[in-house]
Amino acid sequence: MKNDVPVSQIMTKNILRLSLSDNLSTAESLMKKNHIRHLPVVENEHIVGMISLNDLLRISFADATDGGGDDVETAVYEMFTVEQVMTQKVEYISSNHSVADAAKLFLEHEFHALPVVDDDCLTGIVTTTDVIRFFLENEMTKETK
């Protein structure tokens, strides 16, 4: 397996995102509808934070993994802003860094999503699932040769 495969080959490029003016109900709705667990928060294409499903669960009694959606305790979400709940000191990686570099960052920092930033602008997102899938596919490819 090549160790220098760039993150750009496995990252999600069509990124769902939030702005600081969005509310937490919007965040939860996007996550449920699209079966994702992390959303970058951007202002003018510059990343200012990350919000995760765990961040929402931490402040709510709602079952954020349930597909129903209408029973969310919106009153709790209205008490906080995206900026108050999001992680503000965001680690990121550039698209030319290797998948192995991303894996090392995940291990060092114990988070599960990395924004991909090039020229100070958000260009993608890579998750632990993307990295695991990459390594498994390469291992399976190696086994069939």
From TrEMBL:
Entry keyword annotation includes Nucleotidyltransferase: no
Signal peptide region: none
InterPro entries membership: CBS_dom (IPR000644), CBS_dom_sf (IPR046342), Diverse_CBS-Domain (IPR051257)
Pfam families in alphabetical order: CBS
Zinc-finger listed as a keyword: no
Keywords associated with the record: CBS domain
Residue intervals of the CBS domain: 11-67, 86-143
PROSITE patterns: CBS
SMART domains attached to this UniProt entry: CBS (SM00116)
Protein name: CBS domain-containing protein
UniProt organism field: Salinimicrobium tongyeongense
